Amino acid sequence: MQRASPASFREAASRFATGVTVLTALDEHGRVCGMTANSFVTVSLSPPTVLVSVKPGRVHRAISATGRYCVNVLPDHGRELSRHFASQPNTGATPDCEIVDGLPRLQGCLAYFACEVIQYVDVSDHTLIIAEVSTCDHRDTTPLVFFSSRYHRGAGVPVER
Ligand SMILES: Cc1cc2nc3c(=O)[nH]c(=O)nc-3n(C[C@H](O)[C@H](O)[C@H](O)COP(=O)(O)OP(=O)(O)OC[C@H]3O[C@@H](n4cnc5c(N)ncnc54)[C@H](O)[C@@H]3O)c2cc1C
């Protein structure tokens, strides 16, 4: 089978605009950890099911140990949070978060999803982590968007229906 080159794949994939989330979890010592992720996908409405694609690291270990994670959707002013949680290694102080029902929730997010893992699927160097959503909430404000390898503010201009 022919394979797209990594460079052209990366360039083409970057044209798929996404929101930006931070996955948070408690590690095996009960410490908060988090990572920036734009692979968040809603899989089904009933039961409410989502997936994220996570590469090995501290957050992967924390989720595997506890079977739980929280998806925090970043608002338009969340660029620094995104950078913080994409750092390697992410050792800085954890930004403001509260523990709700045993899961860390970042303050000021657009939406959150508390997730209970139902399946792990290893694909090359990532794991698809599929989960049911136990609780979620949202507020009406504008999102942070990742497009063409850059951050953008807002939801764009609505197209007429
Ligand atoms: C906009 C944006 C979107 C992103 N979306 C995603 C996403 O959807 N999924 C995703 O996985 N990442 C994504 N990243 C990258 C991710 O945020 C960073 O890699 C982050 O540092 C991971 O945090 P961590 O604490 O889990 O990893 P750390 O423990 O800090 O490890 C850092 C990196 O070291 C490597 N590493 C660590 N331990 C191992 C091990 N045992 N075996 C092999 N390699 C290892 C991995 O590459 C790992 O990501 C995104 C980054 C950005 C900016």
Automatic annotation (TrEMBL):
Organism domain of life: Bacteria
Keywords assigned by UniProt, alphabetized: Monooxygenase, Oxidoreductase
Record domain Flavin reductase like: where: 13-153
GO molecular function: flavin reductase (NADH) activity; FMN binding; monooxygenase activity; riboflavin reductase (NADPH) activity
InterPro entries membership: Flavin_Rdtase-like_dom, NADH-dep_flavin_reductase, Split_barrel_FMN-bd, StyMonoxStyB
Pfam families: Flavin_Reduct
EC number(s) stated in the UniProt entry for this protein: 1.5.1.36
The protein, known as: Styrene monooxygenase NADH-dependent flavin reductase subunit StyB
Source organism: Bradyrhizobium sp. LLZ17
GN (gene name): styB
